[in-house]
C-alpha cells in the first residue's frame, strides 16, 4: 500500500518519535522561547516543491528535528508567561498519536461510540464543577472563541424562535448584546460573524477593579428596551484576559433574570479556576448562567486545541444545531450523543480524548495543585512588584495575570523592555493597555514555572528599571 508503512518503517517511525519527544522534552529549558528565525530554512519550508517520490521516514524526522523545531516557539518553556498559553501536559503527545491512529469522527455515534461517551464524561465533569445537573450538557470546541460563538448562536435561537427560518432578516428592531469594556475580542468577533453587528454590542464600563459595572449594565438594558431595541444576551467574564477580573456574576444574573436575557460566561481564561478551593466561592454564581465557555487548552494544559461550551439545558444546543439529513443516521441510543447536533461541525476530531486521558492519568488533584501553584506564583510576582520602588501594579491580581509598569521609563518604552527580555532569554511576557496606559503583563498559566523563574524575571525587570 503506497500510504502504509512497512513493518520496518513502523518500527523506525516509532523509534524516531520516541527519541524526538524525549530529546525535545529535555531541551525545553535551554531552548529560546521565541526562536531566532532561520529565514532561509523557513523560505525553503515554504517554497521547496513537494517531492514526487517520498523522502521516507528518516528524512522526514530529520527535517522536523532540524528545520521545524528550531523555528518553533517553545511554548512549554517555564518562563513563557505571555498571553494565556501553557505547556501541554506530559501524556498529551502520546494520546494525540492514538487519537490520530483511531481517527474517530465525532459527528455521530456510529463513527465514534467510545468517543461519544468519553466526550460526555468530560462535559459532565465540567458541568459538575459548576454544579449543573442532569439536564446540562455541552460540546468540546476548538477553543474559547468558538465556544462563545456557539453560545451566542444558541442564545439567538432561544431568544428568537424563528431565527432558524428568518435569520436576522425579519426586519425587526436590532438585537443588543452586552459585555464589558474588558471583554475578550472574541465577543465582538462573534457578534460580527453572526450578523448582529458590533454597533449592537454595548461595551459596559468597568470600575477601578476592571469588573463590569452592574449598575451601568442595568441602566443600559433599560434604556435600550425603552428605545424599542431588543436586548437578548449578556456575556460576563470570569477572568478577563488582561487582568483576570471576575465580573459580578450574581448581580449580572439578577439583571438577566429581570429582563429575560441569556447569560453567557466567558470563562476561557478564568472558568476552570473553579478547581481551586480558593476561588470556588468567587465563581459560585456561575451556576446561574445559561452557558459557560471554558478552555481545557489553557488551565488543563491540553495541547491546542480544546475549548468547551457548557449549557445548563442541553436541549437548547440541539434547538440551535440539530438538522436532519437523509444521508446521516441519527442515533436513538440514550447512551450515545450525536455531537453533530450540538455544534456547527459535521466532521470532528476526538479532542475530548486528550482531556479525558490527562485527567485520568494524572488525577483531578494534580490539576488542582498546578492551578494553586500558578495562583501562588502570580501572587508572589505581584508581591515582588509591589515591594519594588521602581515598579507598580496596574491592576489587582485576582487570578494569575500580573499587570505592571516600570515607573522609571516612559510608557512607550515598555514594548522595548518586552523585546529586551525576550532577546536576552529572560522571559516572554506580553503587552497590556489599561485605562489608556501601557504596561507589561505576565500570566502564569504554566505548570513548569518555579519561584526561581519568577525571581529571575522580577530581578531582570528591576535591573532594567534601575537603569531607567
Ligand atoms: C477571557 C478570554 N476569552 C476568550 C479567549 C479566547 O480563547 P481561545 O484562544 O481559546 O479562542 C481568551 C484567550 O485568552 C480569553 O482570555
TrEMBL record:
Residues bearing the modification N6-(pyridoxal phosphate)lysine: 298
GO biological process: amino acid metabolic process; carboxylic acid metabolic process
Gene Ontology terms for molecular function: aromatic-L-amino-acid decarboxylase activity; pyridoxal phosphate binding
Pfam families according to UniProt: Pyridoxal_deC
Keyword hit for Lyase: yes
InterPro entries assigned to the protein according to its UniProt record, in alphabetical order: Aromatic_deC, PyrdxlP-dep_de-COase, PyrdxlP-dep_Trfase, PyrdxlP-dep_Trfase_major, PyrdxlP-dep_Trfase_small, Pyridoxal-P_BS
Gene3D superfamilies, per database record: Aspartate Aminotransferase, domain 1, dopa decarboxylase, N-terminal domain, Type I PLP-dependent aspartate aminotransferase-like (Major domain)
Keyword terms of this UniProt record: Decarboxylase, Lyase, Pyridoxal phosphate
Cofactor(s) the protein requires to work: pyridoxal 5'-phosphate
PANTHER family in the record: GROUP II PYRIDOXAL-5-PHOSPHATE DECARBOXYLASE, MIP05841P
Membership in a protein family: Belongs to the group II decarboxylase family.
Protein name: Amino acid decarboxylase
Amino acid at each position: 500500500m503506497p500510504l502504509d508503512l512497512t513493518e520496518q518503517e513502523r518500527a523506525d517511525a516509532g523509534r524516531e518519535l520516541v527519541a524526538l519527544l524525549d530529546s525535545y522534552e529535555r531541551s525545553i529549558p535551554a531552548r529560546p522561547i521565541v526562536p531566532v528565525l532561520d529565514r532561509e530554512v523557513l523560505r525553503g519550508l515554504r517554497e521547496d516543491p513537494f517531492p514526487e517520490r517520498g523522502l521516507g521516514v528518516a528524512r522526514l524526522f530529520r527535517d522536523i528535528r532540524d528545520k521545524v523545531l528550531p523555528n518553533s516557539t517553545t511554548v512549554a518553556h517555564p518562563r513563557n508567561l505571555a498571553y494565556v498559553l501553557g505547556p501541554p501536559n506530559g501524556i498529551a503527545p502520546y494520546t494525540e498519536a492514538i487519537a490520530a491512529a483511531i481517527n474517530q469522527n465525532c459527528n455521530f455515534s456510529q463513527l465514534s461510540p467510545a468517543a461519544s461517551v468519553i466526550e460526555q464524561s468530560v462535559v459532565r465533569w465540567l458541568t459538575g464543577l459548576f454544579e449543573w445537573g442532569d439536564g446540562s450538557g455541552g460540546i468540546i470546541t476548538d477553543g474559547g472563541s468558538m465556544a462563545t460563538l456557539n453560545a451566542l448562536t444558541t442564545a439567538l435561537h432561544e431568544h428568537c424562535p424563528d431565527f432558524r427560518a428568518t435569520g436576522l432578516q425579519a426586519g425587526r428592531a436590532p438585537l443588543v448584546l452586552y459585555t464589558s469594556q474588558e471583554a475578550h475580542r472574541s465577543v465582538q468577533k462573534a457578534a460580527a460573524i453572526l450578523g448582529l453587528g458590533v454597533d449592537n454590542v454595548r461595551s459596559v464600563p468597568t470600575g477601578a477593579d476592571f469588573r463590569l459595572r452592574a449598575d451601568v449594565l442595568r441602566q443600559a438594558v433599560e434604556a435600550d428596551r425603552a428605545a424599542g431595541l431588543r436586548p437578548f444576551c449578556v456575556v460576563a467574564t470570569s477572568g478577563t484576559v488582561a487582568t483576570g477580573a471576575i465580573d459580578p456574576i450574581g448581580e449580572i444574573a439578577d439583571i438577566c433574570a429581570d429582563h429575560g436575557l441569556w447569560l453567557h460566561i466567558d470563562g476561557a481564561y478564568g472558568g476552570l479556576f473553579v478547581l481551586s478551593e480558593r476561588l470556588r466561592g468567587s465563581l459560585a454564581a456561575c451556576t446561574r448562567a445559561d452557558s459557560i465557555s471554558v478552555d481545557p487548552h489553557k488551565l488543563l494544559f491540553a495541547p491546542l486545541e480544546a475549548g468547551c461550551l457548557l449549557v445548563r439545558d442541553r436541549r437548547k444546543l440541539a434547538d440551535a444545531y440539530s438538522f436532519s439529513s437523509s444521508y446521516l443516521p441519527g442515533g436513538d441510543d440514550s447512551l450515545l450523543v450525536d455531537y453533530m447536533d450540538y455544534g456547527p461541525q459535521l466532521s470532528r476530531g476526538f479532542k475530548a480524548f486528550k482531556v479525558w486521558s490527562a485527567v485520568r492519568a494524572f488525577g483531578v488533584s494534580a490539576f488542582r495543585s498546578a492551578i494553586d501553584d500558578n495562583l501562588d506564583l502570580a501572587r508572589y510576582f505581584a508581591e515582588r512588584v509591589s515591594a519594588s520602588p521602581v515598579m507598580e501594579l496596574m491592576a489587582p491580581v485576582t487570578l494569575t495575570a500580573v499587570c505592571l509598569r516600570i515607573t522609571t521609563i516612559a510608557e512607550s518604552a515598555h514594548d522595548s523592555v518586552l523585546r529586551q527580555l525576550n532577546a536576552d532569554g529572560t522571559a516572554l511576557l506580553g503587552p497590556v493597555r489599561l485605562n489608556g496606559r501601557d504596561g507589561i503583563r505576565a500570566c502564569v498559566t504554566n505548570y513548569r514555572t518555579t519561584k526561581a523563574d519568577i525571581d529571575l524575571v522580577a530581578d531582570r525587570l528591576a535591573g532594567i528599571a534601575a537603569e531607567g
